[in-house]
Design brief:
Elements: H1 32-49, H2 57-69, E1 75-84, E2 90-91, E3 103-108, E4 113-115, H3 131-135, E5 143-145, E6 151-158, H4 167-189
Length: 190
């Protein structure tokens, strides 16, 4: 008896099957100016709201996804394991634990992996238990690339929908980020 393959909608929100949407990356990449602007807005938003970016990779990824929509770029949030070369702290994918462990990042329609939270890993509440900060080793740099050379991300949960997200917190982040984005875009046009 053959097993029927289950098709699922793309987690980018396009209401198209994943196989026909973001599974196969498009040619091109996010414009450099958009990358820099979104990175700045995400970091500024977390500072304004008083949240630790290194603690909230899932929220940073969902926020980045929302900001990319402003530029017509599709993306989806992924959760899994992560490891950075030369940095002793890493995250295994252990979702069903009393204290779940995972890392979250974003994949754009161009196949770029976007992680705007890893460079703030030392700002975590539990940083004192992480070996990197204890040893004085600089955190990994954020990334927005197709080909990663200094890190490994292993996708386990494409769509990352099984993790609880406080919609009130996310909405507040999105609202603050869009205000910052509009302000910076307006300033750029002047």
């Amino acid at each position: 008896m053959s097993k029927k393959k289950h098709k699922r909608l793309c987690p980018c929100g396009a209401k198209i099957y994943f196989d026909n949407c973001c599974k196969n990356p498009k040619e091109g990449e996010t414009p450099e100016e958009v990358k820099k602007l979104i990175n700045k807005v995400v970091k500024e938003t977390f500072r304004k709201k008083g949240y630790y970016l290194g603690e909230l990779c899932l929220y940073a990824s969902f926020l980045t996804k929302e900001l990319l929509i402003e530029y017509g770029i599709k993306s989806y949030v992924v959760a899994g394991s992560s490891k950075w070369n030369g940095y002793p702290t890493f995250f295994k994918y252990i979702p069903h634990n009393e204290s779940p462990q995972f890392h979250a990042w974003l994949v754009t329609e161009y196949g770029e992996k976007v992680d705007l939270a890893c460079d703030a890993i030392e700002d975590r509440f539990d940083a004192y238990t992480l070996s990197g900060p204890k040893l004085g080793i600089k955190p990994p740099s954020y990334c927005w690339d197709k080909k990663l050379k200094d890190r490994e991300y292993i996708e386990r949960n494409i769509g990352a929908k099984s993790f609880p997200v406080d919609q009130k917190v996310l909405s507040g982040l999105i609202m603050t980020a869009k205000e910052s984005l509009n302000r910076l875009e307006k300033k750029k046009r002047q």
